[in-house]
Specification:
Layout (H helix, E strand, L loop, with lengths): L8 E5 L2 E6 L5 E3 L24 E9 L4 E3 L5 E9 L7 E14 L3 E9 L2 E5 L3 E3 L8 E13 L7 E10 L4 E4 L7 E8 L1
Length: 191
Amino acid sequence: NADGSGKDIKFQANGVEKASISSAGAFTSTSIDATKLSGDLPAIDGASLTGVGKVLQVVQVVASSGAASTTTAFADTGLTATITPSSASSKILVIVNQYYNMYASGNMGMDLRILRDTTDIENLPRIQFGTNSGTYWQNNYGSQVMNKLDSPATTSATTYKTQFARVTYTGTAYACDVLTGSTITLMEIGA
């Protein structure tokens, strides 16, 4: 029926409306079975989509060097990546897989955090472990996954990195063991 009310185009079968196209061009399907579609369908251009998040670009870096710390001051782990957002309204999804090792003869802890340039944007709950002896030195290996959806509000090159700090007592904290492949992934999500 190509002469419906309001100049809508209506598709009917046996008197039952299956779909319609409004005079503004909006297509509405009421009961079309998508499994019955056949033939070549046109490709969808994601650049024209609105109202949904789109992954515009992805940057991933694998740590090429490690770092060691015997102090409680934050220091770079060696894991860093830079992205240039295409729009100031974009968000950046930061995904970090951070490997570490704590070598101590007693209780020890480590703090980890993510920075955007020089701004602290995410802190991981403190990692702690202890040994039963103050004589025997032990290693505590592990990894932590950190995620942060950030809004840098810029189109300038933006650097994200991780930092770590040893917490109290004696021993050494290590980050980004190059044999385990710590990674940082940056995904620009369009508004």
